[in-house]
Each structure stands twice: as C-alpha cells, then as structure tokens.
Specification:
The protein has two domains: 127 residues, no CATH class; 134 residues, Immunoglobulin-like, CATH 2.60.40. Helices cover 3% and strands 40% of the residues. Strands 3, 4, 5, 6, 9, 12, 13, 16, 18, 19, 21 and 22 form a twelve-stranded mixed sheet that branches. A four-stranded antiparallel sheet has the order 11-10-14-15, with no helix packed on it. Strands 1-2 form a two-stranded antiparallel ribbon.
Length: 312
C-alpha cells in the first residue's frame, strides 16, 4: 500500500502519527517526502481496570522530549533530560534538540477503521470506528472489553482509506495482563532489583518495558528504562539504581511495567501497539512519602515533592 497522490500545487504524500486530542473534520494536509507514520493503541490499564483504544493521525512526527543516555548496562539504560536550546524556532515549530526545530504536525484521517480479533462491549468480535474531530475512539458498544482477548490471538485493524491516504491493514499478536510475583520492590543501596513475572506463553510475541522514576514530583531528574524479553525475569543493576538516586528523590517512587506487542503495515509504516500497563510502588529506605503533614513523623512536614522532610 502507499499514499495516494494529491495535487495541491504539486504532488505530495502524507505522514501519520498517533495522539490523543481532537480536531474537527477530515483535513487533507500533505507533505513532500512520501513517508507515513502512524500508531493505534490498545491500552490494557491494570490500574484503572479498563481497556482503551485510541488513535490519532498526523501529517508529520510528533516532537518528543530528548533524553541523554548516561549509562547502559545490559538491557537497562539510565537517562537524564537534555536541555536543548534553539535560537528561534518560529511559529508552529518546537525546539527538539540543539539548534534543531521541528514542525508541529496537523491531524489527518485514514477513513473508517474495522477492528477484528477482540471482544467489544456489544459482545461482538468486530468494531467499526470513525474519526471524530480527528481522533479515532470507538462508540460505547464498540469499545473493547477488559481484557478484550486471550493471549496469542491476532488482532487486525483495517483502514478504508480516503482521497489522501490509501487503505491499509495491520495486525499484532494479542497479550494477557501482567502478573508480578514480587511481594514488594525495594531499592537498597548497592543491591540490584530482581523483578519476576509470569512469562508470556511465547516470549517472541511480546516484550517487557520497565521504567523506574523516583523524582517525578517536581520534575523527573532522571529515569531508568529496560527493554527485555517477556521471559519472566529481569535484573536491574545496582550501579544504575544507585546512580539514579544520586539525581534526587521525591515521594511515591514508582516502577511502571508495560507488556507490549507491535504490528506494522510494511507499505505505509503505520503501527498498532497492544500494551498492558501495571504500576508498582518502590520502597527506598529512609524515604517517607506523603500527601499531608499528618503522614510524616514528628518534626517533619510534607514538602512540595510529596516527601517528608525536616522542618526548617
């Protein structure tokens, strides 16, 4: 499949990319490099106990925060935010790296979506989804059940296409929710964290992504990300954990777990991501998290970073 040629003073093609806001109509913005970007997301949220489907398409890539890679050990990396500077990006552009301005994209659509291989709240295996104000979100009966499928099946999304974007079909293997075996997650000085979970029936069909953030209240100062096989076990090195703590800590340190399965249409590059999400709280000796002063020991108050600190 490929993007159809549209005449707007010259032949051009379209980008696609995923997002979450809404915009009116079915615009026909065009670009000139012929590439296509796009992601549709099936998000199994084990915190809120619901599954969501969202998709939004753009005529260019979304500007992302740039991170510096500080350390790499095995499957895990320590990142710190990069402070980028640009002279003058101008209206409609964002500074994404030093002296690198990127255009903010506009939304587009790709016709009607047909989703098969899941069970929706209308008790059928097929959902039809239209773009409303530029965003693909199913109506009540077409929304996925939680969870909407069993592991190892195939979910398929077919876009009918329109006058700008040719139709395409993408598929991905379905996954199950995450089941963790650890009773607790503790960051002790000089010790690794050994994370254990119920492995996928076929580890080649999915992967695990683990994110550790212990400073997000007040702005993330650094984070650890690990990408590994879905085989049931990951050791996060002590060196990275100790280095992460050196950047600073706030209340409610957390570990985010994502089980992920991907599929891509080779003709357009449009992608589907099926993802299960689980949140674990991390215990750090000497750190007391709080929301109000009464949760802190005598002589301490709950500071703005939601950590108990001595009264100054």
């Amino acid at each position: 499949m490929s993007i159809r040629t549209v005449s707007v003073t010259m032949a051009a093609a379209v980008f696609l990319l995923f997002g979450s806001c809404k915009e009116t109509g079915n615009p026909t913005q065009v670009s000139t490099d012929g590439k296509v970007y796009g992601v549709f997301s099936v998000f199994i949220d084990q915190v809120s106990n619901r599954t969501q489907f969202t998709g939004k398409l753009y005529d260019g890539p979304i500007p992302n925060t740039v991170w510096d890679t500080v350390k790499v050990i095995g499957e895990c990396k320590l990142f710190a935010p990069k402070q980028s500077t640009c002279q003058n990006c101008g209206t409609g552009y964002v500074c994404v790296d030093d002296n690198n301005c990127q255009k903010e994209p506009d939304t587009i659509t790709a016709g009607t979506l047909t989703v098969t291989g899941w069970e929706n709240k209308g008790a059928t295996a097929t959902s039809t989804i239209e773009a409303t104000n530029g965003t693909y979100m199913p109506t009540l009966d077409d929304r996925p059940k939680n969870p909407p499928f069993s592991e190892g099946e195939t979910m398929t999304i077919t876009a009918s296409g329109n006058e700008v974007v040719a139709g395409f079909t993408i598929s991905a293997k379905t996954i199950s929710p995450i089941e963790v075996y650890n009773d607790s997650i503790v960051m002790n000085p000089g010790e690794p964290i050994l994370l254990k979970w119920k492995a996928a029936d076929n580890p080649d069909n999915s992967k695990m992504k683990v994110v550790i953030d212990i400073s997000y209240h007040g702005g993330t100062k650094a984070k650890i990300e690990c990408d590994c096989r879905d085989d049931g076990e990951l050791e996060i090195p002590a060196v990275l954990l100790d280095s992460l703590k050196s950047y600073g800590m706030s209340g409610h340190p957390k570990m985010e777990l994502y089980r992920q399965s991907f599929g891509t249409d080779p003709g357009t590059g449009v992608e589907v991501k099926i993802e299960a999400f689980m949140l674990l709280w991390i215990k750090i000796p000497g750190l007391i998290s709080c929301s109000v002063d009464s949760q802190c020991p005598d002589g301490q108050v709950c500071a703005g970073d939601q950590r108990c600190r001595e009264v100054q």
